[in-house]
Amino acid sequence: MEPKQPEMAARHEKYKRLIARCKALAPTRTAVVHPCDESSLRGAMDAAREGLITPILVGPRARIEAVAAKQGIDLSGIELVDAPHSEASAAAAVALVREGKAEALMKGSLHTDELMGAVVRRETGLRTARRLSHCFIMDVPGHADPLVITDAAINIAPTLKDKVDIVQNAIDLVRDMGVEDIRVALLSAMETVNPDVPSTIEAAALCKMAERGQITGALVDGPLALDNAISEEAARIKKIDSPVAGRANVLVVPDLEAGNMLAKSLSFLAGADAAGIVLGARVPVILTSRADSVMTRLASCAVAALVVNARRNQPGKAVA
Q: Residue 204 is inside which H or E element, if any?
């Protein structure tokens, strides 16, 4: 067990670098939706204390204030928008974005479906031309850089058309995080195109689309199996000649089930942390879990802040 200690101690170094990149940025005005339990309320206030966000708490005032009083959380100077229940909280938070009063959304103690339902509502939501997709920004012990996995939370069985947006959203995110050398691996169970395995055919099509400029900003290759996507040794043994193989920093999974299993395997078997963000809406949506560590919550807020900052510098750019 002893050899693992330095590795585990350093595992948050990647998240700390992301947070440090935000120190020179103005805090992101963030509507925190229905923060009616300790973890969601404290997470928002921790991010505010770090200068990552300026929170606007949206939800039942009495419940939020009761949680704050019970847990000793100081809400002095924090704006609070009263809403009677979770569904109303989501609608009110989305309205704040549409009015230009908030630059990001942060999930509190409501169901993800309730929040995302308000985000995607056609008349009053925050849709863009892009498909919404989720990215896990994984801090994996022993892996030098953050590893982005998409989509493991929103799109259940994405079509080829959906995957174009899923890939582009991830590329734009990693660029906003300050990474210039972006390498996207389109994952499957194998690294050869097999007509009997649809994900390999879609991977090949996505590669050709990248060659033709329909996907931009990164090196894209696939199909690749997980081992030869992230292990240079595995890629060498299998004689895969690719600028992505063994060096991928974005992993695009075939469907939600594969992505969810991959992310949770890294978390529970490799000790990884998983910051999460939804892209493709007018603003980034910070999705946190009650099980998230303080550092993971801060990293999710930091990633959103970097996305918002990129939009501030390019006003015409859609958030992705």
A: helix 198-211
Token pair, residue 272, equals 């990884």
| Whole-number Å distance between alpha carbons of 32 and 25 | 19
| Cα angle for residues 26, 29, 34 (degrees, 5° grid) | 150
Distance, in Å, from the CA atom of 317 to the CA atom of 320, rounded to the nearest integer, reads 9
- Separation CA 252–CA 243 (nearest Å): 16
Q: Return d(Cα 120, Cα 203) in angstroms, integer.
A: 27
Percent of the chain whose pLDDT exceeds 70: 95
Position 254 pLDDT exceeds 70: yes
Domains of the chain, with CATH numbers? 1-128 (3.40.50.10950), 129-280 (3.40.718.10)
**DSSP code, position 131:** P
CB within 8 Å of 51: residues ≥ 6 apart: 22, 23, 27
Residue-wise pLDDT tens digits, 159-174:
999 999 999 999 999 9
Own/partner contacts of 169-172, CB < 8 Å, gap of 24 or more, are 169/130, 169/131, 169/133, 169/135, 169/279, 169/280, 169/320, 170/133, 170/135, 170/250, 170/252, 170/279, 171/215, 171/216, 171/217, 171/218, 171/250, 172/217, 172/279, 172/310, 172/320
- Give the Cα-Cα-Cα angle 235, 166, 168 (nearest 5 degrees): 80
CA distance 34 to 242: 46
Before 223, cis peptide (omega within 30)? yes
Residue 255: is its pLDDT beyond 90? yes
Residue pair 145/113 in contact (Cβ under 8 Å)? The answer is: no
Query: Exposure pattern of 248-263 as b/e (b: 16+ CB <10 Å)?
Result: bbbbbbbbbebbbebb
Q: Under 8 Å CB-to-CB from 216, ≥6 apart: which residues?
A: 168, 171, 210
